[in-house]
Amino acid sequence: MEANITGQNDERVGLYVYDNNEIEHWIEMEFDGEIKYHEQDGYPDKAVKRTKDGNEHVEQARKFAQYYVYRQRGYDTVPASRHPERIEAVRQAIHGLSDDAFEDLFGGLSQQLASYHDPEVDRSITIPRGAPDSDSVIYRQNLYLEIDLGASEVADQVAELAAVHDIDLEEFADRSATDLSKTNLERWDEFVGEFTALVSESETDISESVSLGTVSSLYTSYIDETGDQQFQQPDRDPLEREPDTVLELLPVEPGSLSEFRMYLDHHLKCQVRDSFVRMGLEPPERFRVVGNGRFKAAVAYNLLDLYPKYYDPDSLDGRF
Fold first, then answer.
1. Which residues, other chains included, contact 106 with Cβ-Cβ below 8 Å and sequence gap of 6+?
2. CA 177 to CA 187: how far, in whole Å?
3. Which among 68, 113, 220, 273 would be 20 to 30 A from 107, CA to CA?
4. Alpha carbons 34 and 11: distance in angstroms, whole number
5. Domain closes at, from 48, 73, 98
6. Which residues pair with 248 in a beta bridge?
7. Statement to judge: residues 113 and 196 lie in one domain
8. Residues 52 and 98 in one domain
């Protein structure tokens, strides 16, 4: 995948992208990542006339364009749900949790998964009535980052980013994200995205400067009898913004809490892998792992000839 920004005005950024088939795409997007114009010369214009792999190449170009503009211009163009730097920041933040904090945040999820494998363990939440069976349920939890600006190893760059986004570091430093107004949350959301890109580029260990500010309650999605994915909503979701990532776990055996922490670490590495792979990019080496990440990515790996089955260790002998 290659790209080049060709221009920008007060509303949009324009660029071209060459996908992995060397097909050129012309794309314009607004600063929030919404794509307003997209033409290409290698696939049918209508999605219904493309092959499944052809549609995926088109989607790769769009995702890569959003990521490229984000990295080159710093705009918040990548949805948080597939933002590799934010997911990695969450993974590092979990490393910084004490055992008690980890159990407080994820004990309910661990208990729910354990209930599948031990009849003595009560379920944290009930199986949704519409699910064909309990094994078809995916367990989800929204995770939100919080940054301790004073602990950052890149404080000078953080100060520059804060000035760009009109953030008063002293005002924000001692406040939880749950206390911020909607406008300040939007500014904070953009700031977090650029901060995580900054530390990713410098390979800084951010475990002491980034924490999990809050999480949602446990909730579910499931595949119904028609093959459609149905979503429940969490009973408690404390922030009115996109989460920095969402856990999506099948009812695996969680093991001890320390083993479950290791499993979540691997799950989040797989999510980062999915973000890069579905942009048409090879992930950085530390994220070339096999296992379950995002549900939509697993569906794509299963249906498309374009991809190996990255979710299945047996099909790849545990290797990327």
1. 141, 215, 257, 260, 261, 264
2. 11
3. 273
4. 11
5. 73
6. 140
7. yes
8. no
pLDDT tens for each residue of 34-43: 999 999 999 9
14: number of Cβ within 10 Å: 17
- For the stretch 229-287, pLDDT in tens is 899 999 999 887 889 999 999 999 999 999 999 999 999 999 999 999 999 999 999 99
pLDDT in tens, 234-244: 999 988 788 99
The b-or-e profile of 164-174 (16+ CB within 10 A means b, else e) is ebebeeeebee
Taking the model in full, what pTM does it have? 0.84
| Each residue's pLDDT tens digit, 33-70 | 999 999 999 999 999 999 999 999 999 999 999 999 99
Distance CA 139, CA 57 (A): 29
Question: Are 108 and 226 in the same domain?
Answer: yes
| DSSP secondary structure letter of residue 232 | -
Residue 235 tokens, joined: 């009973």
- Binned at pLDDT 50, 70 and 90, residue 223 comes out as confident
Copy the structure tokens of residue 151: 């602990």
* One domain, residues 42 and 155: no
> Rounded CA gap, 26 and 37, in Å?
8
- Phi and psi at 230, nearest 5°, equal -110, 140
- Residue 188: which of 149, 234, 155, 217 has the closest Cα? 149
**pLDDT band, residue 170 (cuts 50/70/90):** low
- Residues of the domain holding 30: 2-73
Count of beta carbons in the 10 Å neighbourhood of residue 162: 18
